[in-house]
Specification:
Blueprint (H helix, E strand, L loop, with lengths): L1 H5 L5 E5 L7 H18 L2 E5 L3 H7 L2 E6 L2 E7 H6 L4 H8 L39 H5 L5 E3 L2 E3 L10 H8 L6
Parallel strand pairs: 1-2
Antiparallel strand pairs: 3-4, 4-6, 5-6
Bound molecules: iron/sulfur cluster (SF4).
């Protein structure tokens, strides 16, 4: 598949879940091959994955999507060391760590809403520990904070910032 994809000398290779269902050895080989192609052919590679380990290992920039929308766009170091969107924070907190003895794994409560029945306001509001009236009534725009983009009212002056401080205190395992 990869040979077919690069046969026409593309500038961009889109790899949609290229390592799903592969054992770790083959997964490492595929990721290493993609890196090699990127360096040798000057390709840009867009990797679509649910595996945050693969993201940490291979990506420079990360776009986190929720309900078909970009909710956070940042560089890979910032994503893992200072995630800003509550959904990204929830994803990272749900990664089990071998350093802690826990009775229960962290999860993001609730389920993803149906695309035909999305909330009026923020799509993540029904599952978000920081949701406020504003979030329920109005969909947040994609805000720019320094070099990052975040779709969350917490990064707007319209949000009660005492809650934002709570969000920043979340202890993310790295
Ligand atoms: S806009 Fe509100 S509900 Fe949506 S992620 Fe931000 S804090 Fe949570």
């Amino acid at each position: 598949m990869i040979a077919m994809a690069i046969a026409c000398n593309p500038e961009l290779l889109i790899a949609d879940e290229p390592t799903t269902a592969l054992d770790v050895t083959i997964q490492a080989q595929i990721l290493s091959l993609l890196k090699e192609l990127q360096n040798n052919l000057g390709l840009a590679v867009m990797l679509i994955t649910h595996d945050l380990g693969v993201v940490a290992e291979t990506c420079d920039e990360v776009v986190v999507m929720y309900c078909g929308q970009v909710v956070e766009h940042t560089d890979v170091d910032t994503l893992f060391n200072n995630p800003k969107h509550p959904y990204t924070q929830g994803l990272l907190k749900s990664i089990p760590t071998i350093h802690e003895d826990v009775d229960e794994l962290e999860t993001i409560l609730g389920t993803v809403p149906s695309p035909t029945d999305l909330p009026v306001g923020c799509n993540f509001a029904p599952r978000c520990p920081f949701a406020k009236e504003l979030c329920i009534q109005e969909a947040p725009p994609l805000l720019v904070e320094n070099d990052d983009k975040i779709r969350c009212w917490m990064y707007s002056d319209r949000y009660d910032h005492s809650s934002r401080e709570e969000a920043m205190k979340i202890d993310i395992p790295v």
